[in-house]
Each structure stands twice: as structure tokens, then as C-alpha cells.
Amino acid sequence: MFTGIVEATGTIKKIDIEGTNKTFTVEAPFGNELEVNQSLSHNGVCLTVTGVEGNSYKVTAVQETLIKTNLGELSEGDIVNLERAMGSGYRFDGHIVQGHVDQTGRVTHIEEVDGSWLFDFEFDPSTGNFLVEKGSVCIDGVSLTVFNVGEGSFRVTIIPHTMEVTNFKTYKAGTKVNLEFDVIGKYIKRLFDLGYKEAVMKK
Q1: Residue-wise pLDDT tens for the chain (203 aa)?
Q2: 78 partner at 20 to 30 Å CA-CA among 6, 10, 44, 159?
Q3: Phi, psi of 66, deg, nearest 5
Q4: How far is Cα 47 from Cα 51, in angstroms, rounded to an integer?
């Protein structure tokens, strides 16, 4: 489990294609602290460390992950947001993030306002994913609060610190991003879809 608080960015040093999978060699500030079999979030996608050498490590993404996230579009030299799995006894600074991307979205507009930045995003609402005003969403592994929520659209504010320490600084209109919606909201919606609301009202 993750919290959506990015620890650092990593740089894609090499991409090896193995059948329908891709193995990424990533250089990270804490690369030499990692161990094989650790879980690590890459742009919000939970991947398992398979090898470590110096400050670089390897992870493999299967075809399903490559198709349904933006990892399939990564190139050598690109940067990714990184977060190690949450440890026991840590402060919970973001929100519950599983590292399971629900769908991708796209940047539609970027505007600098008084030293911060407004980012507008769109996504396909027909998938059943939804947001609530002032609720949480995870964008490329970053826990953020949404506002101006519409049908398949929302806005977030990015402060200078977040812009500096994440890959948001590389975004432009049209950039594809990974979206993970609030897991609590997803379970509640599922219960209502199964008729839980009607069952409760009958009681």
C-alpha cells in the first residue's frame, strides 16, 4: 500500500523488451537501499524490484500494465514518480493508494496562477470511475485533492514543491497520466450498484 506522497523521481536508463513485457532499468536516489522483491510505485503503478546494482534497479511491467497505463509510452531518459511501500508506524500524509491504476486520463490545460499551477484533466467516465468535489485522486502516483469536478473532468492545484519533486513539470496539454480513484469510494459505489442501498432502505 502507498500514500501518494512521492519520495523522489527516477530516470529510465534502459528498456529491455522480453516478449510482450518490458523490463525497465531505473536510476533513483535511493536505488542502493532497495532489495529484490520490494514493491515500488512508478507513476502510481506498483511493480516488484527484480534486481539491484548500485543506484539502479530493475522492474518488469507485463502487457496488461503496459496497455492500461502510461508505462508503455516511457522512453529512455524519461522520469517517473517513485514511492516505496508504506511502512508500519509511518504518518499517513496522503490517502490510501493501492498502486492499481484504474484508467488513464489526459492533461487538457495548464495555467500558472500566483506562483502555483492549475492542471485540468479529462478521463472517460463510461468506465464507471467517478470523483466528488474536494475528494482525492492519485495522478501518476501523486495524492491530490480535486475540484471543479465535471462529467469526466476535474482540476487540481500544484504547489511549487510538488512541481519541483515530481514529473508534473514535464506535463503539457495532451500528456497521458495514470489515474487511481479513491478505493473507499469505489467500494461504496460497488455496494450501491449491487443493490445495497435498496436493501438498507427496506429495513
Answers
A1: 898 999 999 999 999 999 999 999 999 999 999 999 999 999 999 999 999 999 999 999 999 999 999 999 999 999 999 999 987 666 667 788 889 999 999 999 999 999 999 999 999 999 989 899 999 999 999 999 999 999 999 999 999 999 999 999 999 999 999 999 988 878 887 787 787 655 455 55
A2: 159
A3: -65, -35
A4: 12
* Domains within the chain, CATH numbers bracketed: 8-84 (2.40.30.20), 103-191 (2.40.30.20)
Cβ neighbourhood burial of 163 (10 Å; 0-12, 13-18, 19+): middle
Stated pTM of the model:
0.90
Distances (CA, A) of 118 to 4, 45, 125: 19, 24, 21
